[in-house]
User: Which sequence fits this backbone?
């Protein structure tokens, strides 16, 4: 049996050196005149454009955000890029430069680390961004901390601009990732679904939105963040929340409530002033994904109220995901 | 006995929320008109200046880079900033915006996390940079992955410009951290020394240097990186390497060899073309630290040769630090 080459067999510097050589050969890697110094030096150097720069960082930690059997190394690399790109999309920004800090046990097969870095770098290239730097360190488990620098070609949108009367829309559908996680946690075979690419939708929605957030902790919990930041309340009609087909099929009547509280769907949630709804509907076919109206912002202390069925009174919601309290 | 409040008692979002409130109150936090959106949204938004942007990321991982008894939480936060600021200094750049991704066990006392974040944020403020974002996630151990965005007010310097005939200079002195680590590993009481602030020196040295690197892996190993990147060899006179007083006192005759191979001193190593040596000596008193000539770049295949004493022939060196091979 051929022996598996592991990280400790080549060492940190040799692995990084090999990767830099590979990245330099990538089509497109040299074409971006804005990268003055790429990977392999103390820092990367890039030329800033005239636009506002957006900075975000997020981590995927083994046995917290994923188990190795849940996701292939390449998909994990793509995911580390995508969770950050999702944060940028939620501000109306496009990823430009990426840094990837890896933590891995010395016994990790080289093929795993390579596939992971390749998945990340390809996800960056696909949207016109560059992997310009990173870090590799020994650790007891696998962890990927990525940082993206993005640019907002137009308006940027925060969580804090929602006003009473604004309509609440979401992209895509909810519950697919939550269902997959539930099944995987039960020991069933499967993989985490890929994170949707909402960069084009984010940039377009930023033109008309008063507030926007990406849904990572769960729709109701992230809506709660918008309410707190904006100093307003929200009403959600559970019947309207778009549910991923697999989730609907598996959970039937309970699917809506599950989807509204499940995490990691990475769809966008936007507040749209009524006067801009016509403009939103004109943008609709350029977004690259469906959008659905699910509720509205109302006056009041920050809170999310859920109406389970039309005609029933709304009740307060508490849901979502917090790493330290489960 | 009063019970200790731990991270799991407040949760991720509450901790982040508290921190954002604190940061907003900090003197100077609001004065930087370049931060359009600070911490607490999906991403931070900043206005780029006209200068080249430098991007770098580095991690401090518990039981790999430090043990908790080796460093106070505040010093650990400062250290996470400083190791990245050192990378920027080695390119001639000044930190402007910082992101801190924290990984911590749920049982971590709140006071530890707070002191850590405060140490980081204060280190940033002290050099005119802003903590604009970050992440907090549960994990089996403490880990800090920081990303800095810096600006180069003038010329940037990489590792690859050294030419035969260039003189090699270093800032400060070597061996203090290596000695501390050796003593701590033997179970003796003590702390890791603070990382020197070489940002002003880096910016000034960038005016005259042909190549520059910060010494994190060990002087000889990092000089090896410069040689490989520049396609040249180097000769170091061991007698000339400035040794930290504590290291000299503890190790006597062996101190030079130890200091040249010990890691984590975070001093700068620069190659200076002979014709610019006079300019370097004029800058000297503005650097804020001593500089010492330790050797020179010579023609030949990339290698570092060490002359232990004047008159003795040089021999090839192999030293330094690689996380996966020890």
Assistant:
């Amino acid at each position: 049996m051929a022996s598996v080459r592991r990280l400790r067999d080549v060492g940190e510097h040799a692995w990084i050196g090999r990767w830099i050589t590979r990245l330099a050969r990538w089509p497109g890697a040299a074409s971006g005149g804005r990268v003055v110094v790429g990977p392999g030096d103390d820092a990367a150097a890039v030329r800033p454009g005239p636009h506002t720069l957006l900075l975000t960082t997020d981590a995927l930690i083994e046995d917290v955000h994923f188990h190795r059997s849940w996701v292939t190394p390449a998909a994990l690399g793509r995911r580390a890029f995508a969770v950050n790109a999702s944060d940028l999309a939620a501000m109306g920004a496009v990823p430009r430069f990426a840094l990837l800090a890896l933590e891995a046990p010395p016994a990790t097969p080289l093929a795993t680390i390579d596939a992971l870095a390749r998945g990340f770098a390809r996800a960056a290239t696909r949207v016109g961004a560059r992997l310009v730097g990173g870090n590799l360190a020994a650790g007891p488990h696998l962890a990927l901390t990525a940082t993206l620098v993005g640019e907002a070609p137009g308006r940027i949108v925060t969580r804090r601009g929602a006003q009473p009367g604004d309509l609440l829309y979401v992209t895509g559908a909810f519950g697919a990732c939550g269902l997959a996680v539930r099944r995987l946690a039960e020991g069933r075979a499967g993989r985490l679904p890929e994170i949707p690419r909402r960069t084009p939708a984010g940039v377009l929605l930023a033109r008309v939105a008063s507030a926007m957030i990406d849904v990572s902790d769960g729709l109701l919990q992230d809506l709660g963040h918008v309410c707190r930041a904006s100093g307003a309340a929200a009403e959600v009609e559970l019947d309207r929340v778009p549910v991923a087909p697999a989730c609907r099929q598996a959970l039937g009547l309970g699917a809506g409530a599950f989807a509204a509280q499940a995490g990691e769907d990475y769809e966008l949630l936007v507040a749209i002033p009524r006067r801009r709804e016509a403009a939103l509907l004109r943008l609709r076919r350029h977004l690259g994904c469906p959008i659905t109206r699910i509720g509205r912002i109302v006056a009041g202390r920050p809170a999310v109220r859920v109406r389970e069925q039309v005609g029933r009174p709304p009740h307060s919601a508490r849901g979502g995901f917090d790493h330290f309290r489960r």
Remarks:
- The first helix of chain B runs from residue 7 to 10.
- Chain B touches chain A through 75 residues (CB under 8 Å).
- The radius of gyration of chain B is 21 Å.
- The mean pLDDT of chain B is 91.
